Amino acid sequence: MSEADHRKSLEVADFNARNAAAAGAVKHYGEALLEAARRDDRIVCLTADLTLSTETDPFRDHLPGRFHQVGIAEANMIGIAGGLARSGEMPFVHSFCVFVTRRCYDQVAMQVAYPRANVKIVGVIPGLTTMLGVSHQAIDDIALMRALPNMTVIEPSGPAQVRAAVAAIAEYDGPVYLRLKRADGTEKPSEASADFRIGRMRVLQQGGDGLIVACGMMVEIALQAAERLRNEDGKAVSVVDMATIKPLDPALADLARRVPVVVTAENHSIVGGLGSAVAELFLERDVHVKFRRVGVRDTFAEGGTTPYLFEKYGLSAEALANAFQQAARGAAV
Questions:
Q1: Which of 120, 275, 316, 326 could form a disulfide with 264 if both were Cys (CB 3.0 to 4.6 A apart)?
Q2: What is the enclosing helix (H) or strand (E) of 95?
């Protein structure tokens, strides 16, 4: 089998596995988008040949006149969305995280961010959550999108927050990048997120021995790490869900001043993502604290299951707890 054929077979297997896993799952994003569209007839939906994978099939089935399948043409999709936004509509555009950011970055910058167009860019398969390796792993998308002026960057941590985030960005006038883990039926019941606000953190638990700041899939892992630190070291650690990565909640600086150690956790490169945003905030606000970043450490990864990749690349609860302990001791990274 040629390398190209092998890659294609992996893509088909991964696609089929994801669809099988999601078949019985509630489509939290898809349902929330449809609900928002029924409330606001400006909302239109675009996808780049990934309808099922981006949970946009409910929109297609119920509001076909406002659904646009543009094919495998992400740059063109962004251009279309920019034009629709200038005409008064509110486009939600969809693809895999890596394709809807890096593949069409110039179009995002010029057609969406620069004119501050009311376009919502929605990416699925964040970070190391695919068998398909480097070509499909979005480990730099947060860094890219937060670098763009006018762009808001959001990564919800669970189903309830996904629904709340969709409602919030539908009310927000301006460009948004929404980074999502596709529902696969394994999600735990999430706490109510009715208090979700763009640009505001959620303090999930409080403790005076340190602080873990996490986003997306790493929020649950941060809670597990905090539990491990409590059981093993008797440490009481605060955990913050930083769903909005840009603009970052400045109140985080005040919270960090009360603890000796802060660790960030993200399913993304440590370069330019949540950890970088938090470090920048701390330096500019004169926050003096022991600080570490947990994430993909400036490397590409291979394909594999999410548990395997999270373990190998240091995104597990154990790795996060170890990073906290090393920071507390002042040990080098």
A1: 275
A2: strand 90-96
